[in-house]
Amino acid sequence: MKRLLLAFVLLAAPVVAQTPPPAPAAPAAPAAPPAPPDTWLPRPGVELAGLDKITARVTPLIGRVGQTLSFGTLSVAVRNCLVRGPDQPADQAVYLDITDSRDTGISFHGWMLLSAPSLSMLEHPVYDIRLIGCRA
Fold first, then answer.
1. What are the C-alpha distances in Å from 90 to residues 41, 45, 49, 82?
2. CA 77: distance to chain centroid?
3. Ramachandran region of residue 120, left (φ > 0), alpha (ψ -120 to 50) or beta?
4. What is the pTM of this model?
5. CA–CA dist 47, 34 (Å, integer)
6. Is 129 helix (H, G, I), strand (E, B) or coil?
7. Of 33-42, 99-108, 120-129, the least confident
């Protein structure tokens, strides 16, 4: 009897093992990713603050994108000024090209962020430039 039961189990096992698994459902076509929101909006004006470290005087520098501002021996060319959209965390950024008329080799070319001024800053022994904000 035991042999008969063992033979039945062995004969039935391949039938169960050979049945094909159910076919997987066809994957749905991936939806097109949504267009990224315009997270940065351009502004035509800029307000900077120039600090003279020797006299401790702060001078406001107000200008337009494309304009070159002067502060001490520095020439500050404003290339772009952007603000975050209303549905984004508040922040502002300005792209500046800063050069010193004294042939010191000190220059700055890059973005300055209002929320993180120490992230990228002008390293100058006499002057400091900070973003106050972008203006309409």
1. 12, 17, 20, 11
2. 22
3. beta
4. 0.70
5. 34
6. strand
7. 33-42
